[in-house]
Structures are given as structure tokens and as C-alpha cells.
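Notes for week 9. Today we move from apo structures to complexes. The key idea is that a small molecule is not decoration. When we ask for a structure prediction with zinc ion present, the ligand SMILES becomes part of the input, just like the chain. The input block below holds both the sequence and the ligand string. Read it once before you look at the output, and try to guess where the molecule might sit.
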Amino acid sequence: MNWLLAFGLGLMLGSFMNVVIYRLPRMVMADDEGKHASPRFDLWWPASHCPQCHTPLKTSHIIPLLSFMWLKGRCGFCKSTISPLYPWIELITGLVWVACAWHWGFNLSALCWAIFATTLFALAVIDWQTTLLPDDLTQALVWGGLIASTSGWIALGVDQAVWGAVSGYSILWSVATLFERITGKQGMGAGDFKLLAGLGAWLGPLPLIPLLILASLGGAVFGLTLKFTHKLGPDGYVPFGPFLAAAGLLIAAIGIDPLLTGLGW
Ligand SMILES: [Zn+2]
């Protein structure tokens, strides 16, 4: 029963993450261009509708996973195809919540880590699709880690959380500033600094070292693979956020000891 509850909660949050992943970057871009969205456009408004025919969805159309299966991946009104990314995001979030409950038990700690993982997952997808890491999510990650540690909801000392956040931001800021001075090119965005600050607030300062090594290796291998298979143009850019998020999730799940052994330390 508990497992079903974890899966159900994950599915529901995954469904909400679909809204966040689609709308939040569009809200950020509208803000950046100084355009006040009109008619109103935010996470809550307008109600979910088909992107093709704009018909507002019925309640039976927004049940996570099941609606997609009933409707066979098509809009209930105009029959245009719905991106399979939606049910995948719901399913993965549901499974992440089950995995957190399995790893940490049915307690507040598991709930905190499930929210941590869901936020990282949303950030990774948004960065992948748009190369943006919205402040609302990266800052929520920082504050969330500090609050969870201060309240004793996760087993991380308050000093660790604070120094984790501070060092996460400063390490990447320093690397990026140095890179910019030397090459005159911008390598990373401020979103990456804030994301690593968020990861530091949940993991502490020390794990950020193997995390960065892992994320850089992952990003480099992936970028080079794309380059050599000609899937990445000369100005092509592989966002760093998804690799930071993936390395952060891995370390949250297994700790740093197996990684340090793997790196030969
Ligand atoms: Zn439609």
C-alpha cells in the first residue's frame, strides 16, 4: 500500500513537473524580453489544454500515465499526437519516488530526497531543452537543502549544508571567470553556479569534488561523441546542468566512497 502511495505521489508530482518543464522556461524568456505575458501565462493559468487545438483538457485527460494510454497518445478532441515525453516524465518521477522510499524508508527524509530528485530531474530536462536553469528551481534547491538540514530532516549537518552551498557557487564561479579571462568566451552560465550551490546544500562541500569530476567527464564524453558523429554543429553546445544533476543524484544515492575508490583515491 505504501509503495502504491509513493508511486502515486510521484506520478502526480511528475504530472505537475510536465507543466513546470513546459511553462517555466517560457515564463523566464518572456520576463527576459521584458514582455508581460498577456493573456496571463504562468504555472496555474491557463488551464491545461491541447497545444494543437487549444481545447481545455477534461479531468479524464489529465490522469498521469493512464490518460495517455486510454487516448493512445492522441488528443481526445483533435486526435493530434501527444509527445511521449509527458508519460515518460510521469513514469520516471513515479519510479524515483518508489526508489527513494526503498532507499530511505517511508519517512520525512525519503520525502525530502524525493523532492530533491524530482527538482533535479526537471532542471536537467529544462536545461537540455532550452539551456536555461530557472532561478525558481535552483534557488528552491538551495533553500530546500538548508531548511532540510537545519530541521534535521536529512542527515547533513547545518555547517555542511551552508559550506556546501557557498563552495558550490564559488567553485564554478571561479572556474567560469578564469575561463572567460583566458579565452574571452563564456563557458558556463550563472544557472550552473546556482545548481551546484543547490547540490552543495544537500550533499555538503566535499562530495562536490567527485561530483564535478564525474559531471565533467560525462559532459566531455557525451560532447565528443556528438561531435565525432556530426550531431553537434561547430557552435554546438552541450548543457552542463543535466550532467551536474545526474552526478548529484548518483552521489545522493550511493555516497562518495564507491566513487573515490573508482577514481583511485
Ligand atoms: Zn487537440
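The first helix runs from residue 2 to 32.
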